[in-house]
Each structure stands twice: as C-alpha cells, then as structure tokens.
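Can't paste images in this forum, so I'm doing it all in text. The chain is below; anyone willing to post the predicted structure tokens underneath?
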Amino acid sequence: MKTIGQTLKYIFLAVAALVTLVPVLYVFFYSFKSNQELITGGSLLPEEWTWSNYSEVWDKLDFSLYFYNSVVFAVVSAGMSVFMGAMAGYVFARTNFPGKKVLSLLIIGVMFISLGPMTLYPKFKLAVDWGLTDSIYTIPLVALYGLGASVFLYEGFVKSLGKDMDEAGIMDGAGYFTRFFRLTLPLMAPITATFFLLEFIAEWNNYILPLVMSIGNPDTKTLTVGVVELRNSGTGAAAWNLLLAGSMISVIPVLTVFILLNRQIVGGLAQGAVKG
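Text version of the structure:
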C-alpha cells in the first residue's frame, strides 16, 4: 500500500512538472526558429536553428538600460512591500486599537477583489501630477499596493513568536519601535527573504504598470516592456521569433536568482507555513 502511494505521488509530481515545463520548452525551441517557420507551424524542434535571433535581439534591445530599470523597479518595489507588510503585520499582531477589525476586513476585501484595472488610470494621473513618472527610482512608489497577503503573513508569524520577548523588552524600557526593529525584525529574516524574492519575481514580470508609467518617458522602460515591443520590430509580420528570443533572455536573471536561492525560498515558505 505504501509503495502504491509513493508511486502515485511521483506520478502526480511528474505530471505537474511536465505541465509546468512544456510552455517553457516551447518558448526555448521556438526562439531558434525563423519567423516564417513560426508562422507556418511545424514540429517542436526547429528545422534550421536560427541563432541570429539572439544576436538581433541583443542589437535592437537596449539591454543594459532596460535590465538596470528592471532591477531598480523590482528591488525597490519588493523592498517597500516587504517593509510595509512587516510593520503593518507587527502592529496588527501586537496592538489593539479602535477600528482594527474594520481595517482587517478592508484588507481582506482588497485581497479578494481585483482593483488593478480600476485603479490604473488614477495611479497614472497622480503619478504624472506628482512627477513620479520622471524617474525609474520613483515609479516603484506607484506600485506599492496589494499588501494584504504580506500583512496577514507577518501578523501570523509575529503571533507565533509569543509575547514574552515583547514583555521583557517593555520591562527593560524598550519603546515600540525599538521592540520592532531590534527584537522582532531580526527574527523575521527567513520569512522576509522568502517574501522579498517572491515579490521581486512578481515585479520583474510586471508588464502593465511599467508600460503605462513609461508612456511619456521611454528611458524608464523595463526589460519586460522592451521585450514585448520587439514583436513590432519586424519589417512586415509580427516578429514572434525576436519576441521569444527576448523572452528567454529576460528569464535568465530571475532563473539565476532562483537557482542560487531556491533552498532559502523553500525553507522560508515551509517555516512560514508552520508558524503562520
């Protein structure tokens, strides 16, 4: 019976891995096809490997600028999201204040109702009026939204730590901010690293917001926006070969980060699941 269970487990994992990897394999092999072969169809493997797709993308795409913009946008957005989530989670876990339940309900409501398309124009209008679209360093301020999941993640983690440490800090005269920054925040390191990486990947792949915010300033385009625009760089039909080759190039930085830090990500998720 145990053997059957193990076999079913491996079959399920193999199917899940296959379903996940098939689209990636398609993009990888199709990125070596000519545009004509892509349009006319064919097998998964290219009839003739067109290596020039990658060199053409490298020449047409201002890779260094777009890569830098993507790193700044993803790092600043993820950092602010993690920091705000950690502070809000600590307040909800350690403080009783009027309207706490109402605020919790509002945060839950935002988590389950997609406000992205509705709030895009107001965000863009405010960003233009306040001059936030002029620099890649200020655009991440517009992306600071959707803290619901991080707030509840950190709230559950802080509650699992117990109140003994905070009570000892109060006995020693530590203030509210001292207890957060010097006692609690260091203990949040594993879950913070995991959440930061997940937010980094999400913002790296963010397309709509950087596209809208860079309308009036092309120098603030991110790598994702630049890669999608490669589709229109052909002389006639859409240049799907360049789009796919650019997509593979844009995946390399995130894939490298994940390979290097996958143990920390999995460990942090497991720890958060146990303590949350």
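The longest helix spans residues 240-275. The two ends are 33 Å apart (CA to CA).
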